[in-house]
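Hello, quick one for you while I still have it in my head. A protein chain has come my way and I'm curious about its shape. Can you walk me through what the tokens say about the fold? No rush at all, and the record is pasted right below.
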Amino acid sequence: MKAEKQSAAFATDDEGRTSMKAIIHQNDAWEVWRPGVESRMLVSARNSATQLCIFEQWIVPGAGAPTHSHPAEEVLTVREGCAEMWIDEQHMTIAAGQSLIVPAGRLHGFRNSGQSKLHIHAVLASPIFEAVMEGATEVTRRWN
């Protein structure tokens, strides 16, 4: 059997080929992103992703993500609860089991519009989380 070198997401054999390796999320750190919003990055450049990042958030009623944009497309899926979400000036309520596709570069955000915690699952088509808050010129980069 050939020796394998381990990385965060893949094992590599002597010929440099990658093989499967599970990413274990039980020890992934939760962080307070802003008051009332806890986030956990599941997949990103930090564990060898090259095309996307996947993260989840738990949001208390009334809290959420302020208006911002990303240079890549994002999909926001409500797992539990309901959220008021917006893209530019359009607003709608997204409930558990529904997703919103946010085109790259568009201003968007959300807030927990329900009475219980909101659980969001997000996929961003970039291995590094980059965002620009509305009115800002500086890019925020995380989980790279």
Observations:
- The mean pLDDT is 89.
- The longest strand covers residues 37-43.
